[in-house]
């Protein structure tokens, strides 16, 4: 956050470097096209101004047609090339690596609440270790917000009623802007914070020094019992309900023949609208929990179910 | 660059007064109840001028507030209301109607050799509907304003915003009927009322552009009306459609909204393309380069423009596959715009170029539109868009297209056809000065926004991190220059109504049918209806360039017999 006039934002993530490469490529291409058009305009306007002595005459028809087809094709190929370049970067950056540090983000008018795996909470701030992949699982309590860190070239809308995800790997220690980029009401412009990138060992020390609470999954586990979920879904239960151990992230078959991946969105929907996507072989007997749970509780349940996957793997 | 308007002024003998549409009838009722497309165009022009000032007031408040990083003159809510007002009024009550309802209304019948639009009374009704909608929009502003942004995103607009969202939505809804009625009128007119011999591929490109725009209006506007009704249903009657807490989907709104609002960008820019083609050929004294390609480019834009709405939603949580598909289509829609820029440039080749004000506006248009179009490539590339979407980069991009492009073209077209509309010549020196000022004022205002957007300045921020201040100050200072450039023509055009020299029927030596009748035209447009023998833009003989020192050997497209 230097105060001088700069023309380039700091680049502090792996993705930022890739985005900047495309940006520079686009600058070169569009600079060249702009220069070409400007030069042609300038040359034609001087040479063919009214009454100048430059010779005029018509071009043969086939040259006109060839020129036209030529620049149509050139424009198309150029556009397709840029598309291919940008798309390949995007596909490559799409999925977070396994084992990424998972941080939950809860947005509301007008603040960011973040929560680390060990239970540390922050408001309008986020501390992350350098060099480690960080996955953000985000939801909003009210309107649509957008999690924007210019230095990471990272932006993802945060929606009410569903989870959106994004990830990054920070490369430069420092403090960077965290901004809300989707207009969200009166104090939209004040919904800002700071992302602090620390060395990994510093981060560990910082996280340990935060007031300790139960972590998300442990809280979720307690909810799982107190809400009665475990009565049916626990492994030893007598009621006919699918066991949730290791289900997270797996492809499962539904009673109507479709298959679906059991991601955060699916599990969330299954808690709120259990009759919608019933697992093959089970009766639709689960009651809905819509209206009984707030977003925080949903997040905790989700974290618990997700943690069952890790338990399974071990 | 010699002034050539002197040789174009008509001898001062005033024509017989009752000849023109302006003087055929008098009295307020003869205007307010007129079904003459030329008078209705002027009624629209009065309305649009009013809305332009209202929208500009919103912009002025925003630019003034952004001079410093802290809040100075407006509260947070007042700022939000100011930019919502600016966006809503400028998009739906100025830019979307601007060229079609004024120049289009005035010129389409003249250019195709007709006596009026196909449905003259529908034309008058659409003006009243438009003014009623505008009155509603201004009332929602006077009553306290709206703070949702012009995009009305849910669930902010349905459950959280405190302003007069319903009134504003109703205003836009009602304005939609006016748009659709006007568009249907143009489509029917172009299909049914073309002069004998005026085949589709002899139509001036302005008529093609208005025709394609009308098709887009008819197909896209109902979707906007529908989504506004859904917002109305949820906000007023609590019917859950977008509210996620009750099973709704907030993203559904964005899909429907952009299904209209992306084509709406083409509604704003296609008519400007038409104006450009008329001006550049006339002042280069040259046939348009690649007429058929220009027509196909218009149609290509109008069709593919419907398939790219998802590029507004790359960070909304839309699937990667959808993002890639919309990114691909956005690159495809960029190609015809490139073709048009190259063809206008090539039209200058071997011309006899005269730098009168309309031509300066047109050259400025090419420059600004090229920058606006090229930055569209940045936004179509998903990784770059993720960084710059919802920042000032996007704000700069669409202002380059819709203001640097469409509004410059509007001023250029207004200058070009001013002698035809009023029978008076505008003062050439002032007009050239205004055109040059507009180009540079626009650049000073909006180019800094590209830089601060890339640096990470989000849009719709009243207070902002202090490192962005230098760019905001540049931009606000540029806005002062731009404001002068927009006000200046209003001054000298108004002056020319009373003091301008009288224009002869064809002061520019242009080829279109609209120049083959008197200036201003009689109420029935043509005393005898013209017959068309050739295509447009016959500024020089088919197989030879124009002689070096003469401008004149153009041939009109048709004649009155």
List keywords for this structure.
heterodimer; A: 314 residues; alpha+beta; Immunoglobulin-like; Cytochrome Bc1 Complex, Chain D, domain 2; 3 domains; 5-stranded mixed beta sheet; 39% helix; B: 561 residues; mainly alpha; Cytochrome C Oxidase, Chain A; disordered N terminus
Gyration radius from CA atoms of chain A, angstroms: 27 Å
Number of strands of chain A: 12
| Run of helices and strands of chain A | HHEEEEEEEEEEHHHEEHH
Number of helices of chain B: 16
Could you list the spans of chain A in which at least 5 consecutive residues all have pLDDT below 50? none
Radius of gyration of chain B: 23 Å
Question: What's the CATH class of the largest domain in chain A, please?
Answer: Mainly Beta
Mean pLDDT of chain A: 87
CATH architecture of chain B: Up-down Bundle
Given helix and strand content, the structural type of chain A is alpha+beta
What overall form of chain A do the CA principal axes indicate? elongated
Largest sheet report of chain B? 2 strands, antiparallel
Tell me, rounded to a whole number, the average pLDDT of chain B. Answer: 91
| Beta-strand residue percentage of chain A | 15-25%
Helix content of chain A: 25-40%
Compact description:
Chain A is α+β, with helices and mostly antiparallel strands and 314 residues long. Helix content of chain A is 39%, strand content 21%.
Topology overview:
The complex is a heterodimer of chains A (314) and B (561).
Chain A: H1 14-47, H2 61-93, E1 101-108, E2 111-115, E3 121-123, E4 125-129, E5 133-140, E6 145-149, E7 154-158, E8 164-169, E9 174-180, E10 192-198, H3 200-209, H4 216-226, H5 229-233, E11 251-253, E12 259-261, H6 264-272, H7 295-313
Parallel strand pairs in A: 1-5, 4-10
Antiparallel strand pairs in A: 1-2, 2-3, 5-8, 6-7, 6-9, 9-10, 11-12
Chain B: H1 28-32, H2 37-65, H3 76-95, H4 98-111, H5 120-142, H6 156-160, H7 165-192, H8 205-237, H9 250-284, H10 291-304, H11 320-348, H12 357-380, H13 382-388, H14 392-422, H15 428-455, H16 469-499, E1 530-532, E2 558-560
Antiparallel strand pairs in B: 1-2
């Amino acid at each position: 956050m230097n105060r001088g006039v700069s023309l380039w934002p700091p680049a502090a993530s792996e993705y930022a470097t890739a985005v900047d490469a495309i940006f520079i490529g686009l600058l070169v291409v569009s600079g060249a096209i702009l220069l070409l058009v400007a030069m042609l305009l300038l040359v034609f306007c001087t040479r063919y101004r009214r009454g100048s002595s430059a010779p005029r005459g018509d071009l043969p028809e086939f040259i006109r047609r060839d020129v036209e087809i030529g620049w149509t094709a050139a424009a198309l190929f150029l556009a397709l090339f840029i598309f291919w370049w940008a798309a390949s970067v995007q596909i490559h950056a799409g999925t977070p690596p396994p084992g990424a540090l998972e941080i939950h983000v809860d947005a509301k008018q007008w603040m960011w609440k973040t929560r680390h795996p060990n239970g540390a909470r922050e408001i309008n701030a986020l501390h992350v270790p350098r060099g480690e992949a960080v996955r953000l699982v985000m939801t909003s309590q009210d309107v649509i917000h957008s999690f924007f860190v210019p230095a990471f070239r990272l932006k993802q809308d945060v929606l009410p009623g569903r989870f959106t995800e994004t990830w990054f790997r920070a490369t430069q220690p420092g403090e960077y802007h965290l901004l809300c980029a989707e207009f969200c009401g009166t104090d939209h412009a004040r919904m800002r914070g700071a992302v602090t990138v620390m060395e990994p060992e510093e981060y560990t020390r910082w996280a340990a020094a935060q007031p300790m609470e139960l972590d998300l999954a442990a809280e979720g586990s307690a909810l799982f019992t107190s809400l009665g979920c475990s009565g049916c879904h626990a492994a030893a239960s007598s009621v006919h309900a699918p066991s949730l151990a290791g289900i997270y992230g797996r492809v499962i078959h539904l009673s109507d023949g479709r298959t679906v991946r059991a991601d955060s969105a699916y599990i969330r929907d299954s808690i709120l609208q259990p009759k919608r996507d019933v697992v093959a072989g089970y009766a639709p007997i689960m009651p809905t929990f819509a209206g009984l749970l707030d977003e925080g509780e949903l997040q905790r349940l989700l974290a618990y179910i997700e943690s069952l996957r890790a338990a399974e793997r071990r | 660059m010699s002034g050539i308007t002197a040789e174009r002024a008509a001898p001062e003998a005033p024509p017989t007064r009752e000849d023109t549409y302006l003087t055929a009838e008098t009295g307020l009722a003869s205007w307010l109840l007129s079904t003459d497309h030329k008078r209705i165009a002027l009624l629209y022009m009065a309305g649009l001028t009013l809305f332009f000032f209202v929208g500009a007031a919103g912009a002025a408040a925003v630019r003034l507030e952004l001079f410093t990083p802290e809040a100075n003159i407006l509260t947070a809510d007042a700022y939000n209301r100011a930019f919502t007002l600016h966006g809503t009024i400028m998009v739906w009550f100025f830019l979307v109607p601007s060229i079609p309802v004024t120049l289009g209304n005035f010129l389409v019948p003249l250019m195709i050799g007709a006596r009026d639009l196909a449905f003259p009374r529908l034309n008058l009704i659409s003006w009243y509907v438009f003014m009623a909608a505008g009155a509603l929009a201004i009332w929602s502003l006077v009553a306290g304003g709206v703070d949702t942004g012009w995009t009305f995103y849910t669930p902010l607009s349905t459950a959280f915003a405190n302003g007069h969202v319903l009134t504003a939505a109703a205003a836009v809804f009602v304005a939609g009927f006016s748009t659709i009625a006007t568009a249907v009128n143009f489509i029917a007119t172009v299909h049914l009322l073309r002069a004998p011999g005026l085949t589709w591929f002899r139509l001036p490109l302005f008529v093609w552009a208005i025709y394609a725009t009308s098709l887009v209006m008819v197909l896209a506007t109902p979707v906007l009306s529908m989504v506004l009704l859904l917002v109305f249903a949820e906000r007023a009657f609590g019917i859950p459609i977008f509210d996620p807490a009750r099973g709704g989907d907030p993203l559904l709104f964005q899909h429907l909204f952009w299904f209209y609002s992306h084509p709406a960008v083409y509604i704003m820019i296609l008519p400007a393309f038409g104006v450009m083609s008329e001006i550049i050929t006339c002042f280069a004294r040259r046939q348009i380069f690649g007429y058929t390609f220009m027509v196909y480019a218009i149609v290509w834009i109008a069709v593919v423009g419907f398939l790219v709405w998802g590029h507004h939603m790359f960070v909304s949580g839309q699937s990667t596959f959808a993002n890639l598909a919309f990114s691909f289509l956005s690159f495809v829609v960029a190609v015809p715009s490139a073709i048009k820029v190259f063809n206008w440039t090539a039209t200058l080749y071997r011309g006899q170029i005269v730098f009168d004000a309309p031509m300066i506006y047109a050259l400025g248009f090419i420059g600004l539109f090229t920058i606006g179009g090229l930055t569209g490539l940045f936004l179509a590339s998903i990784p770059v868009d993720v960084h710059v979407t919802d920042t000032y980069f996007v704000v700069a991009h669409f202002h380059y297209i819709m203001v640097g492009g469409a509004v410059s073209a509007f001023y250029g077209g207004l200058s070009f056809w001013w002698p035809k509309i009023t029978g008076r010549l505008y003062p050439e020196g002032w007009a050239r000065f205004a055109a040059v000022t507009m180009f540079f004022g626009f650049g000073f205002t909006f180019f800094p926004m590209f830089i601060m957007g890339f640096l990470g300045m989000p849009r719709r921020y009243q207070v902002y991190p202090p490192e962005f201040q230098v760019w905001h100050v540049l931009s606000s200072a540029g806005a002062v220059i731009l404001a002068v450039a927009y006000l200046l023509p209003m001054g000298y055009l108004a002056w020319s109504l009373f003091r301008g020299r009288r224009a002869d029927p064809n002061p520019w030596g242009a080829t279109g049918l609209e120049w083959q009748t008197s200036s201003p035209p009689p109420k029935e447009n043509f005393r005898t209806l013209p017959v068309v023998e050739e295509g447009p833009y016959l500024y020089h003989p088919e197989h030879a360039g124009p002689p070096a020192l003469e401008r004149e050997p153009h041939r009109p497209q048709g004649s009155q017999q």
